[in-house]
Amino acid sequence: AYSDNGMIDRIIYLAAIYHPTSLAEMDLATAENIIDINLTGTLRFIHFLQPYLPVKGNNNKPQIAICGSVAGYNGLPQGQPYSASKAALISLTESFQAERPDLEIKLISPGFVDTPLTRLNQFTMPGILSPQQAAIALAAGLQRRGFEIHFPKRVTYCLKLLRFLPYRLYFKLVQKLRS
User: Less crowded by CB within 10 Å, the N or C end of the chain?
Assistant: First the structure.
């Protein structure tokens, strides 16, 4: 959305593809496409925005929300290119905010949302939300202060905590969850 002065008020960037597979069965072209859309596409988006962003020191503080995923928090089986692209996207969005503190950058980190992409998963998805529930959580997050919008909280906090485990324990837990 543009404000009256021709500058951006708010932009939400939600583009992603996902194809669950093992590393042994992964098609390289599909993996490259996932990286291209999920990560390189976001770089293109940020590059495209530059002329429309206010000069530092301007009172206009647009909100730019970029959709990552909780899949970027941890390396998990069956989604390596997706998880890797989302991990890189988290870092990219953090870097964007660090570089432009005069902008309100938000990282959207949804958990499982019932979509055609998540229906490809062949495992139980804890805390799966309907698209309507996800939209409500996203809209509420856009109104709050803070860098990251993550939902559902009970799932996202558990995944965040996994990052602090020693790798030996982390991999044992992931294997247990897979069985």
Answer: C
Instruction: Note the pTM of the prediction, 2 decimals.
Output: 0.90
> Per the structure, how many domains does the chain have?
1
Return the amino acid letter for 34. I
Find where tokens 């098609």 sit.
27
Closest C-alpha among 100, 112, 91, 113 to residue 42: 91
φ, ψ for residue 60, nearest 5 deg: -70, 125
Do residues 61 and 103 touch, judged by C-beta distance below 8 A?
Answer: yes
**Are the CB atoms for 85 and 75 separated by under 8 Å?**
no
Convert the pLDDT of each residue in 70-114 to its tens digit. 999 998 788 889 999 999 999 999 999 999 999 999 999 999 999
What's the distance, CA 153 to chain centroid? 15
Residue 48's CATH number: 3.40.50.720
Q: Are 66 and 22 in contact (CB under 8 A)?
A: no
DSSP state of 54: P
Owning domain of residue 146: 10-178
Burial class (CB in 10 A: 0-12, 13-18, 19+), 82: buried
* Residues contacting residue 178 through CB under 8 Å, at least 6 positions apart: 77, 123
Q: Closest by alpha carbon to 67, among 41, 48, 49?
A: 41
The DSSP 8-state label assigned to residue 83 in this structure reads H
